[in-house]
C-alpha cells in the first residue's frame, strides 16, 4: 500500500462537550470503543499493520459515536460496542465496509434532515 505505515487506520471520536450542547461521542462511550477496537485487533493477531486510536471531533456529532477508517475514508455512525467485531472482521480483514453502519454524505456535505 505505498508509503502507508498502517494498512488500516481506525479513528474513533472521543470528543467531549459540556451538557446542553451538541451530542458528543466521548460522552457516549467513545473511549470504550477505542479500547474494544484495540483489543479486537490484538486478539486477532493480524498479519498486517492496523492501528485504532482516539480522535478529536469528526464534526458528525448527531450521528455518533462516529468512527472513520483510513485510507478508505469510510465513516461509520451510531457505532456500538457490539459492532466492533463485525467492523474488524468485515472491513479491516476482508475489505468489505459494513453498509448498515456506513455514512454516505451528499456531494454538498450538508446532512439530510433525516439525520
> Total helix count?
2
Helix content estimate = 10-25%
Determine the N-to-C terminus distance: 34 Å
* Strand ordering within the main sheet: 2-1-3-4-5
Tell me how many strands there are. Answer: 5
The CATH topology turns out to be Glutaredoxin
Summary keywords:
115 residues, 2 helices, globular, 5-stranded mixed beta sheet, Glutaredoxin, alpha+beta
Short structural description:
The chain is an alpha+beta fold and 115 residues long. The chain contains two helices and five strands, in the order E-H-E-E-E-H-E.
Question: How would you characterize the overall build of this protein?
Answer:
The protein has helices spanning 30-44, 84-93, and strands at 8-13, 50-55, 67-70, 74-76, 102-103. The protein is an alpha+beta fold and 115 residues long. It has one domain: Glutaredoxin, CATH 3.40.30.10. Strands 2-1-3-4-5 form a five-stranded mixed beta sheet, with helices on one face. β3 (67-70) and β4 form a beta hairpin. The protein is globular. The N and C termini lie far apart (34 Å).
SSE layout:
Elements: E1 8-13, H1 30-44, E2 50-55, E3 67-70, E4 74-76, H2 84-93, E5 102-103
Parallel strand pairs: 1-2
Antiparallel strand pairs: 1-3, 3-4, 4-5
